Amino acid sequence: YLRERERHDWSHVHLASCYGGLYGRPFIESFEETPMLVAVLTYMGYGILTIFGYLRDFLRHWQIEKCSIAREKENQKDFVPLYQDFENFYTRNLYMRIRDNWNRPICSVPGAKMDLMERTSRDYNWTFEYTDRVVQDVINLGSYNYLGFAENTGPCADSACEVTMKYGVGVTSTRQEIGNLDRHEEMEKLVAKFLGVESAMAFGMGFATNSMNIPALAGKGCLILSDELNHASLVLGARLSGSTIRVFKHNNMQSLEKLLREAIVHGQPRTHRPWKKILIVVEGIYSMEGSIVRLPEVIALKKRYRAYLYLDEAHSIGALGPKGRGVVDYFGLDPCDVDVMMGTFTKSFGAAGGYIAGKRELIEYLRSHSHSAVYATSMSPPVVEQIITSMKCIMGEDGTTIGCKRVRQLADNTVYFRKRLREMGFITYGNNDSPVVPMMLYMPAKIGAFGREMLKRNIGVVVVGFPATPIIESRARFCISAAHTKDIIFREQGC
Length: 495
Ligand SMILES: Cc1ncc(COP(=O)(O)O)c(C=O)c1O
Description:
Blueprint: H1 2-6, E1 29-30, H2 36-61, H3 86-93, E2 113-120, E3 129-140, H4 155-167, H5 182-195, E4 199-203, H6 206-217, E5 222-227, H7 232-241, E6 244-248, H8 253-266, E7 277-283, H9 295-304, E8 308-312, H10 327-331, E9 340-344, E10 354-358, H11 360-369, H12 371-374, H13 381-395, H14 402-423, E11 430-431, E12 436-442, H15 444-456, E13 459-460, E14 462-464, E15 474-479, H16 486-489
Parallel strand pairs: 3-13, 5-6, 5-7, 7-8, 8-9
Antiparallel strand pairs: 1-11, 2-3, 4-10, 9-10, 12-15, 14-15
The structure holds pyridoxal-5'-phosphate.
């Protein structure tokens, strides 16, 4: 079957190329449909696991098999069950079998290679014990270290150390009170300059940047149009805002336009008053699909229907575009066309936290209205310094071309890695330029087997299955880094 794939039967692949003159470059994404035989075998795999799950639950009920999962207290056994649902059944009977593939503790910097702490389980993955052995130099194909700035040597680490000596680690106050450091102000100016917008504000956590700022921007009487594959932090933010949420098909512009048109024509339910605000929420790179947002089309639609655009660049900032400025740079667009630019420092910058950037009025408004701006302790100084130093490096403001080379290296590695996987006959998802590379595994047994077999070969990978993906679309998700050399990726493995 794999050999057959080598012939690149593109007839099964959905290609989207230059579209209505909006794109200045070819836009190629492939999402091959699950082949029928594979789908049938995958469902059979889940069927067999489910039958065994029920059998084992029967044995556990009669205490023939031991079970350590959360269960109702004996004195509350007449209550409506607190823990009984399908996901609990799934966790107990399917996830537990392959749980060793996740949460593995690492004991080094998560660079191109990393060290793992070896652990074993004597009770079929219910609990783990450490063997005190360290598995060294495991190739890291899982961290979001796109530009290789997750490192413990070099200018970023040195400046973070220096700043720690001067400012310490904790700030112990909020930005509004005594936690507003000169380093925070410098970082925010730099972020605005990096993105080419008027102003920016940073927050201590990327997840909270979304979940706490969307409620400050939208509320009752507003409509949020959200891509179906948006990150949990965006979904939570939209729900907390109290706005009406409508979901459009992933990256599907017909679906988005239909919702926009309906929103304009019908207005709010019952009263038919116009919506107070319509906010389109999308991501730059989708981290499970490896797809890139069709930004030129989204911007055209938002202008046509006078909606606002919230763009989450968690995975694309630093990782896309000739200058590493994200998806706006990738498509050669004007950053001012995006109303709210959001991103995180956790990935390409090897730090922590998130930002919101855009017009000065937007940022001033958020400074006093966002819960994460007002009530959360401000960012730790070494983290701020890591962001400043890595961002200056990408911008070439450190007087070197290191940052520029890393951006180019990441783009080259991505194209090379995707091409080699295709040549080897694997089915990959997403955009050709996306450093997030999902490789389809489909069958449940392969999720655990692939993760374990790769680790035997000293390669650390992330495997993903239901509920993070549709049930028949389990996959391995590789994240390419500028720190990976071609030798690391392929030759060392003799592939
Ligand atoms: C699209 C997106 N937004 C927000 C976040 C949250 O960012 P953080 O991990 O920095 O809290 C993530 C995390 O992976 C993400 O993928």
